[in-house]
Amino acid sequence: MADDATSGRDDPAAEEAALGRVLEAEHAAVWGYGVVGAALAPGGRDPAVLAENAHRDVRDRLAALLDERGVDAAPSAAAYELPFPVLSAVDAAALAAALEAGVSGAWVALLDDAVDADTRALAVRELGAAEVRAVGWRTAAGQTPTTTPFPGLPAD
Question: What is the pTM of this model?
Fold first, then answer.
């Protein structure tokens, strides 16, 4: 993370902008889990449904938080570009892992710009939840390693 002199820690507008970017990532995750679920056998959709509902709940809380602050939140897009074709259950699991990585990156960026302690606590909690879900999806996709030491940060 950047030091306080270069981060948005003293700038509520930077925090609100970062919250907006997290909301956009959550919108994409909700949409993406529809694709994930569609590629899974009916008996194997429970993890996708649970993940979609978790992201939907977080998205709705973020939208309400931004509304309370008087910030116009970006609406969800009609569709999002997939990073690769989803043609199998393994592809679906890989997409779910990618969705979790996307929200993790947005939560980490929010931590850098957070002014409010409650915002930081929310970001840490949701970053952890995203990594827990990602571990299951990476396992299902046959990806290794299944865990990341610093979720949301670039691997390089």
Answer: 0.91
